[in-house]
Amino acid sequence: MIRFDGVTFTYTGADAPTLLDVDLEICEGELCVVVGTTGSGKSTFLRAMNGLVPHATGGRLAGDVRVAGRSTRVHAPRDLADLIGLVGQDPSASFVTDVVEDELAYTMENLGIAPAAMRRRVEDTLDLLGLHELRGRPLRSLSGGQQQRVAIGAVLTAAPRALVLDEPTSALDPAAAEEVLASLSRLVHDVGLTVVIAEHRLERVLPFADRVILVPGEGAPLRIGSPEDVMADSPVAPPLVELARLANWSPVPLSVRDARRVVAPLRARLSAAPKAPSERRAPATSGAAVASLEGAGFAYDEVLALSDVDLGLHAGEVVALMGRNGSGKSTLLALLAGARRPSIGIVQVRGEAPATLSPRRLVRSVGLVPQDAQLLLYCETVAEECATSDKEGGLGAGTTRGVLDQLVSGVPADRHPRDLSEGQRLALALAVVLAHDPPLLLLDEPTRGLDYPSKERLEGILARLSAGGTSVVVATHDVELVARVADRAVLLADGEVVADGAARDVICHSPVFAPQVAKVLAPDSWLTVEEVRRALRAADELAAQP
Amino acid sequence: MDPRRRRRALHPAAWWAWAAGLATAAIETTNPVLLSLIAAVVVYVVATKRSAAPWSRSLVVFLRLGLVVIAIRVIVQVLFGDRIAGHVMFSLPQVALPSWAAGVSIGGPVTAESVLQALCEGLRLAVVLLAFGAANSLASPYRLLRCLPAVLYEAGVAVTVALTYAPELVTTIGQVREARRLRGRPTRGLAGLRGMAVPVLEGALDRSLELASSMDSRGYGRRASATSSRRRATVATVATVAGTVLVLVGVYDALGSATPWGLGAAMLLVGAGLLASGVALSGRRTQRTRYRPDRWGGAEWLIALSGAAVVAAFSIAGALGVDGLQVSFYPLGLPPVPLLPCLGILLGLAPALVAPTSAPRRGAADLSAARPRDVTATESR
Amino acid sequence: MSRTARARLAVRLTTRASVLLATASLLGLAAFGWPLLVHARAGANLAHAADAPWIFVALLPLLLAIVLGEIAEGSLDAKAVALLGILAACGAALRVPSPGVAGFEPMFFLLICSGRVLGRGFGFVLGALTLFASSLITGGVGPWLPFQMLGAAWMGFGAGCLPRAAGKREIAILAGYAVVASVLYGALLNLWFWPFAAGTTTSFSYVPGGGVLENLHRFVFFDLTTSLGFDLPRAVTNAVLIVVLGRSVLGALRRASRRAVFDPVVILEDVAASPGSGPTSGPRHHRVVGP
């Protein structure tokens, strides 16, 4: 279906080729998952399939990419639109029109498909993706998952034989991601579409995958194989696979279901470990109180977004704020950050109401990194950004840069903030906020779009901050992040706090919020692979003792 | 008519054709009675047929603008008017201006005749604006964009993108302002402006790149046949250039000529025809199709024709030499009320009876649902 | 050198497009300037003076459509269209606080910067489309629209024709251009409005057959007294915006145009040629002409 023959591609002005001598074939009706870290050339690889590379990017291409026999050497992307569809990360950025139906028809209009056929295909696509109730809705009013489904539908109406998706769920919350993946699996199983998908959060897609393509980056050869084979030693792996490696399971299980069938021996070994896991990490309520909400509520116009919230935050504590979209997480952060005044009740940070503080004083007591960290940055280079932050904040020269270097080393000073990797950009935004040394740090969905290494780095940063006495609040959907860093979890629903306690107690036995490791090892309360590893080591030491 | 058909929105071009008819009629007269009648018809039709869409408020804006125009015209007349004999209402002190003032004189006696004349001229422009305002109020700009001629396909896509992105831009600006506040930075003043403008612009530019790759992979710019287009394009160019020249010569000839419509008018017509054919010829180079195009049915014909009927009534009246299309207040007197144009204008009321009440398929989708989204947007971002 | 410089432009003007652009500009000039040029013959009653502006209102859109279509045909690829749309949205957003005929029009500043960075063809189209889009958004499609579109298009075109410069000099040139162009734009639209405001019976009005110079003299006086009060602050606003934001905005636009890779150079090596063997093995270079 999609065939790479000795493909080598070098961007104009680059020293080394991004793709080197790629030979592989993706077969008809297959679902292929492309795995690799940010900057490994994953996107280049995907875009080479429909000819955006090299026709839109420029560069030097050797070898041949053929889609159903049509070569991208002679056909531009627009001439391949009826064979292969490409869906990007941010659905809203791909919309040309403003209404669902028009957006679905847009591709067909370009291809000159007869009106009657167009009408029928739009109806088919609406049904296939479950969008029929949304047909007349403005695209802006849709949720992220709905938008992404429309974006997929918009390329499907051209009746392509292959679909390429570049991290279609990385900008979505888990529920929306599930929704999109369910639609995809339907397309693969019922329609027989060939699907190539790149995805950060592998745990979501591996169960569906027929084959996995590993893009290791730095010119190393691509690998294609069955998920079990490739995952066995892939540098990028979900927690489940790491657990499998730790327990020497072979073949590697790809779903919680598979893993639970082979988990018994591991559980037996763990039961021999010296300490029960739940005693390990207790919420650090002992720290000094930093901020508090007492009976706080907030209403947008007449819609109650948050009601009657009582919450105390303490120094050195990492609190995870969880709940579905619209449950009031962002509103709670906005109240703490002083961006909104509570409609009712009291919000205090170090004894003062944040909404009444002057901006200068506010940044010294609360720091908030919004979901799109980019919004905090507006200079042309990293160095300028740091200097501006020092100057405007009345800090000593080099303060921000110093904080940045502590967070992540080696962020190039002359780079444009927008050209940094997601992880580096997040670090820069964090540095700008942390330069004021606020006792309370708020993060809104910080792991969205981060790959595993960047996520690990972020976890390290948060652990260090909490050790240094900062109170950290993370609003997130990422249960793995919560499992690794949070001491305490607060669960919101419908604007109210429905659970507040040690992270382990709140998430471990929830079917929705439990991390993979917890699901595999249930009913025992294990949260992370690292915990299991430590416990095993302790058990081994214990066994080795005479 | 079955109920479903009655609910469909009218083709936007029908409204524009109707409004153009009324505007053309207004241009042809300075009779305040006729002009007021046209204004009344326009306002009545808009009042009965407008939807709840945001653009339906345009008429009020244009109405205000019309009042401003009348005021300007009258003020200029009072201050700088030529001193022709007549009934002096009051006298302004005369100011002598130096020679570089191009012979402009200020002040002097103000006559009732000149003020009335200015009022009517101002009213004429105001009524034309009102007709434009009516079209703005009644026709959805989004759907208007869908019926642009094929020659404007690319430009039309760009404008569609602009209309799609503009509301989102407002959201982004709000987010950036919030983020600035969080950094303790000013959101006002020059420093605030720079800090706000750059992230917004950078975000927008990044967005355009993503959009471009999406459009590219969705077949934008794909051509069915490019071979036959070359000669046609040349013909279109020649037609356009020739048309322009004819129009220019025609307009200047007609403007300067003593007779009502002579050779100049003919050249003007031929030139306009050439320009229109230029548009048509340029447009047929690519093969694209339209999804659910707006239908042009009986109601559309009736509405467009009612506009044309108004113009026809005025033209016939002009040709018959009916008195009262152009009024003169020298000598001062009440303007005559010519019957034929009055009846013609009443034909312009047809849309109020013919047009379906607008409950459009896309109308609701255009902007009205923006509000609840804002809540969720703030919430989920 | 000039070849590579031209290859980077977002919108290339073909010969045919240039001819049409010149034609449209000619008609546009006539549409704006007819009161200056009217030569009434003996006995002319100027019965058609009231019709003249409306004839242009009807014809100018036709011509603008042809020109925009011709520029678009063959040189507006997806990147250029997307960029045009997004920048037009930004420009329209800048206009929102000041709708209507007059106003401060801070969008000129963005238009000038875009024309400067992305070239005159792009500037022309952007100027026209920004005003069109913003009229649609605000529901303000009036008879002045074709004239505003043409005026803004000229402004964008002119910004793309400014001489090479960098750093502070460039900002100074752009700010100076912003002042001149804003004042000219104001004067042009005022010229269009002149017959409506002054009619034919004031000492402000144009004099049929009075000669270009005399009428121009009258118009300049009219312009000075009636609208310079609006035009100058607008010109200053835009110049100040360029001084304050110019460097960042130009930088952002340049970065975007670099990343967009307009008119990309694609080199296809022979399938047989071993990768990385370099030009010695004779790779077949051919430039795929931009879409």
How would you explain this protein's 3D organization?
The complex is a heterotrimer of chains A (546), B (381) and C (291). Chain A has helices at residues 42-49, 52-55, 100-111, 115-128, 144-156, 174-191, 202-205, 227-232, 239-246, 256-261, 264-271, 329-336, 359-365, 382-392, 399-407, 422-434, 452-467, 479-485, 503-507, 516-521, 529-544; strands at residues 2-10, 19-26, 31-35, 59-67, 70-71, 84-87, 162-166, 194-198, 211-214, 223-225, 289-300, 303-314, 318-322, 344-349, 366-369, 440-444, 471-475, 488-493, 496-502. By secondary structure, chain A is an alpha/beta fold. Chain A folds into three domains: 2-236, P-loop containing nucleotide triphosphate hydrolases (Rossmann fold), CATH 3.40.50.300; 237-271 and 519-546, no CATH class; 289-514, Rossmann fold (3-Layer(aba) Sandwich). A six-stranded mixed β-sheet of chain A has the order 6-7-8-3-9-10, with helices on both faces. A six-stranded mixed β-sheet of chain A has the order 15-16-17-13-18-19, sandwiched between helices. A four-stranded antiparallel β-sheet of chain A has the order 2-1-4-5. In chain A, helix 5 (144-156) packs parallel to helix 6 (174-191) and helix 16 (422-434) runs parallel beside helix 17 (452-467). The N and C termini of chain A lie far apart (61 Å). With 381 residues, chain B is mostly helical. Chain B has three domains: 3-147 and 308-380, no CATH class; 154-216, no CATH class; 227-286. Chain B is 67% helix and 4% strand. Chain B has helices at 3-6, 12-27, 32-49, 58-80, 112-138, 141-146, 153-182, 189-217, 229-256, 263-283, 298-320, 339-347, 350-354, 363-366, 370-380; strands at residues 88-95, 106-111. Mean pLDDT of chain B is 81; it is low at 1-6 and 359-381. Chain C folds into two domains: 2-40 and 50-260, Arp2/3 complex 21 kDa subunit ARPC3, CATH 1.10.1760.20; 266-291, no CATH class. The longest helix of chain C is centred in the last third of the chain and has 33 residues, at 228-260. Chain C is globular. At the B-C interface, helix 4, helix 5, helix 6, helix 7 and helix 8 of B face helix 2, helix 3, helix 4, helix 6 and helix 8 of C. Strand 4 of chain A pairs parallel with strand 1 (266-268) of chain C, so a sheet runs across the interface.
